[in-house]
Batch of 3 targets.
Target 1
Amino acid sequence: MWSSKRRDDEVPQRPATTPTASNPATEPLRREFNTMPTPTKSFDSDLSPVRNGSAALGKNVTIKGQIFAREDLTIDGEMEGTIECQDHRLTIGPNARVQATLKAREIIIQGSIQGNVEASDKIDIRREAKLVGDIKTSRIVIEDGAYFKGSIDISKAAPPPKVTPPPQSQPAIVTTAPASPPVIPLAVTAGPVK
Amino acid sequence: MKFGKAAAGDPSKPSGKDAPLGFQRHSSGFDQFCSALQTPEGGMSVLDMSGASQANIVFLTGFGHRVSSDDIIGAMQQSFADNFHENQQSASNAQRFLDQALAFPDDSFDGILVWDALQFLSPPLLNQVVAQFLRIMRPKGVMLAFFSSSEKTTALPVYTYRIADRKTLSLIPRAGEQRIQYYYNRFLEKLFEDASSLKFFLTRDHLREVLVRK
């Protein structure tokens, strides 16, 4: 039986009708209320964007235009235009067909690209990839079997400038001269010299 | 036929459980090719016709060079298909091949690695291809091409060339064999007559390595 005290202890947003543990009519409602909704699975598990903190365009998505991303991005559909993913990873999925200029920190290529590709850190061309275009990057990994036609410009990333720490302010060294001993006047008595 | 330390038995088969597929061979021609392109600051432009590979890209870019990759054997197979040699005689097939494989501007490259692809071509296409290579080479540029030196050999496995080091190449067999043309030295001198110099390196594995300088 529910007591008023117990009712007060319940979650504030309770339905108007007072539910009872034994009332089957309200049981489903309570369960539905208390249960977290099941997230709808709208992406392939490999591309699970929300959980991994990245965005993804599925294989049935076609985009013409420019994409600017401030997080990791996976494209598995068709794209025509430019893609910029500065300081993040761009993945071109196995089903992707891209006619675009790509720029990112790191680029992983599994699909088909026609266009120039620039990565400040690394480009990874997988076995099933097909890339026609010029590459500019610091590092490149290309698997056997990948098709690539174009030029490769390896630009070594400039080493970070050496930061010399500012000279630490040294505590002042104060030397003090020892205090001169107090002068004690001597008593002088004059008398005849013997 | 001896191919060096890693090889044993049939060169088209792997030599050991852990050995990479294919075999290795010493190449004086490639060593000379590297010397010709050696500059303190790098910055040369090299065309590698064996298809893009990690080994070749890392080696060539290690010198500071810019590398362009294409697969000329793949382009040949696409353009000429099953009737490989007969289809080369067709002007339209030949033009399609030239447009696909050699559509580069004039004076694009300081170095070109053709490897052994030219021995699978026959005139007049061979002459057209060589003319195109010389067109896209910069003045004083160099090109390295391999030709069989055995008159009796009529077909060879098709290989992909990977650079192991400056003096060593790894040959990875591709599917199938292909008929080759044997060319006398005199023919090759005439073929490259527009070049400023030719250097031949004869090898023990019945190959002539030809270093062509524009």
Target 2
Amino acid sequence: MVQFFTGSQFITSMELGLLYGLVALALFISFTLLNIADLSTDGCFTLGCAVGASVTVAGHPFLAFPAAMAACACSGFVTALLQTRLGVQSILAGIIVNTGLYTINFLAMGSSANLNVFGSDTIFSLAKNVSENPLYRKLYTVIILLAVVLVICAFLHWFLNTTLGLSIRATGDNASMVRASSVNPAFTITVGLCVSSTLTGLSGALLAQYQKSCDINFGTGQVTIALASLMIGMTLVRKGPIFVRAFGAVLGSCLYRLIVAIAMKFNMPAEFLKLASAIIVTAAICIPYMRGQISFYRRRIRKDRSRA
Amino acid sequence: MSEHMLEMVHVTKTFNPGTVNEKTALNGVSLVLEKGDFATIVGSNGAGKSTLFNAITGAFYTDDGTILLDGEDITFKKEHLRSRDIGHLFQDPLMGTAPHMSIEENMSLAYLKASRHKSMFSSITRREKEFFREQLSQLGMGLEDRMKNPVGLLSGGQRQALTLVMATMVTPKILLLDEHTAALDPATADIVLDLTKKIVRENSLTCLMITHNMHQALEIGNRTLMMDNGHIILDKSGEERASMTVEDLLEQFRIQAGMELDNDRILLSE
């Protein structure tokens, strides 16, 4: 096993898991809590990546994050606006924004389909030079990403327990009850989608600095992968306080990356990844349903037998 | 402020106008409720009772007419803004609460109505938690010890009782009860109904209650209304109401509506 799966490969999967875990957190808000399938996630991820890369190349490795997050908050706002004020169905709103973002992303990278960040300072390159310690050199990326994820989980724990957060959670649960509590669901959906898109954007910007590049196709399939992570996470942690559930989604993302890494070991071509994540999502949704069906058929067969 | 709590003047609502499904659910309804009035409403299915409630809560805007609540014209006020002053309970106990959230969280959402000036970024305070426990202990259902439980785990009766507390915790100007005990078993229905009467009495609430139980229609509250085909066809209170029997009420229905009661849900219960 040690030869089969090295420590550095494990660390790389954890890095990717934590990084993409932020998108799983975004879907935790939009999909689990608001009960909205936000299909603009793909484009939004690329937007965060593109804006993050551009600002990093301009020599502002730290400013890259608020810039990317602000850009994605705007994208989330538009998605919400379409479905709450302009009567567009929520799934369609996501698809429309996703399509529009392709052009925006292209422009954000200076009218180019990709952008290199090589040679510019990133938070990772800056952190690397802090210490010569070999153990630190191995783990500094994980440390940074873990810190970011923990801060975000803590933020969500606080935010989703405020009165505004409670209204957002109730919107996906029973919108008419939210209205009866003198809160406009259009408002809670807007805030929720903005926060969720912001997290997607943060993830995108981190990827730009982590991979030192950005490509117009980075976001493709992100929503499915994040859903797969979220589903795995929700099987790991079913209930508990928000912090635990949110961190469960990130753990799901880490586990997903680990599974992918193992699959790669069996010489699975990288192109198969998206099919694999599609299958994982399908399985995660189908299995609980199939279980119910199977127990029903079992019961029926048993009954038929006892009659015969 | 006005002595009238609710004043509806010639309120009209037509659904699907200009189609074969056109239905005038409210046809020039005028109704005045004094402060502290507790009126019951009877009428066959499709008579416009629930539509009347929805017109008051603002689920849709009316086509014509004016609605005043405590002297304020709310005809074009948005639904979520009206809800500060209106408590609304439905027949389905699932309608009034969020199942995946705890009792405490549900109550603090309902309590938002009171905390107009509170920051949206504040959490539930210890004092509020204590207040919620107190409110729940009135029910005598032991819910005050299950504050952290998700509401989805409660029975229909418990959920309806919780919804009742949530709707009246911040005293509403008017409480609308839409057959709120109809989906409960008889024993639980009695408990919830007694609670309703107690809460309405203690807070001297103005209340409208839809029921299909003719005994309830005459016994509870101080006024009985009957609706048919988008009109209020009968309005009795005081002496007139006190001398009325269930048979009278049914007879009135026949005369006023000019039709026979056949397979309707209006049946003698008990």
Target 3
Amino acid sequence: MRDWCIKWTRGAVLLLTAATAAPGAGRIVLVADSRLFSGWRAWWCNLYNDSLFWFAVLTIVILPALGLAMSKVTDAIMKRIGINLKSRVPTEH
Amino acid sequence: MHWLYTLMPVAGVEIAWPGLVILGLGVGMIAGFFGMGGGWMVTPGLNILGFPMAFSIGTGIAQMQGPSLVSTLRHAKFGNVDYKLGIVMIAGTVGGFEPGAQLVMWLERHGRVDAYVQYGYLALLTLIAWLVFTDVARKRSKERAARATGQALDSTAAGIEWHKTLHKIKIPPVVYFPKAGIRCSIWLPMMVSFVTGLMAGFLGIGGGLIRMPALIYLVGCPTHVAVGTDLFEVTISGLYGAASYSYKGRTELLAAVIMIIGAAIGAQIGSVATKYVKGYGIRVFFGVAVIGCALSIVLKLISSAVPGARVFLDEVATVLILGLVGVLSLYIFLRFLQGVRAELAAKKQAVQITV
């Protein structure tokens, strides 16, 4: 059991290292020019330059969250217009 | 007019932000209506607006999460998402995607990968367009035959019914998918999603364009459930695609955020419009979208064969795709307006009768 735990932990650490490692050598590396920006945009450029892992994590968290928020707003607008948003009449195949 | 442009922090290019909102709106409508992520429309659109190609692909996939999530939630409320079927299919899609991508790598080592992918894409789109229009023609002929005998055709009747033959293969476990209303071997959706995932990996697309007709013609889903379930799949595969491209540093969050503002509104309009359009109406316009996509690939193939006309033909292909996005979005918007007007009028009438 202990061996199995150690093997599993090693595997997980390896996977995590591979996932968080910097992109492979030979690939084109882009650098965002943070000097052109201030505030959150400069911070975003720095994050992009420092860690693509956290850049990717934040991107896949922010976009669905924003989609969800926008969905609530548009839902409220459609309900206000008076559209039935809960059902549709099944018509054909 | 400088206020119409904004400098993108990562890509380092100046982009007209109203263009992003309009592109998002159009693609959102089409995504919500047809159940596709719309990568084939977004990528050239972003490229025209000024993004380098790698950023166009990455940002296109990333922004897809917004409209697909909005549309999935809306379709789920209409009862159009079969989550059980979607989850079964995710296993097949993920399993098929990687071998497809590996096939591309293998072809790349042997050269001519671009041509193989483009010809494969073209063959597939031709098959889908043929399927859709043959199905519509057969359904019409069945309707005519029923009318001639003085009977009405069953509302669930379809033109092409390959799924009925496939449902007879009862390899255990046999599972019932309640929203889709089908009982079949679990291996059927798994195999279908494996093959569609393989093709998506090979062609480098999200897969909605292939999965939607596969759900209808092979698995046997009603059109509306195929649209909703496919959107659920697009949301999950889009998440993977967004993570992959962001980790490669080819996503522009600011552009994706601006696009989502338009896309979320568009996705709601597209999803609600499916309430007012019959299943076969959706199939016909899906076929038109597929033909437009196939034409743009034909132009790309000609442009690589005739280098002198490359710039001109590439521009024609791009105008064709964006024109198609415009026409389809306008159609969806008009059907939405008509449907809403009729629904509100019916409600008003019902209130007057009770008073």
